[in-house]
Amino acid sequence: MAGFAFKSTKTLRWALGLSLGVNLLVLGLVAGAVYRFDGPHGGAMRHMRDYGTPYVMALPEERRRAVFADARKGREDKSVSRAARRALYQEALTAIRAEPFDPAEARRVLDLQRDATLTVQQTVQNAWLAELAEMSAPERAAYADRVEEMLKRGKKGKRDGATPPKAGK
Prior knowledge:
This protein is an all-alpha fold. It is 66% helix and 0% strand. 7% of the residues are buried.
């Protein structure tokens, strides 16, 4: 069987570049599917999502926006900024790579990350409670029904094939 020969190196470069592009596209699609179906949004790790998510997502849109606005205003502690969280991950990576490995240093960084997470959670929780305190008893009862409905939903936010109700409706 005779081999296939390119007439010029330019054609060969184009063919290799096209092949590489197609391979990267396929790799991206596979990685995206794995992340989507087995990552933090679904699959086996679905139960690991934030416990507060149903409470906030069941709020009517205007109240949900108010919670997040209040949380942003109440975040005077700059230790929980994105830059600070990234810096903590870098510290963790440094601790993991250190030779010899120092478990106490790794624990120190993990404790800082935990404290930052708890600070954010407490800030959002306070803003959420403030919104609930402004609701009337019938509004809170309707809200509790929406939370309950969100907790019953299956994958993709649907239950029994029905379209989920919008929050606040």
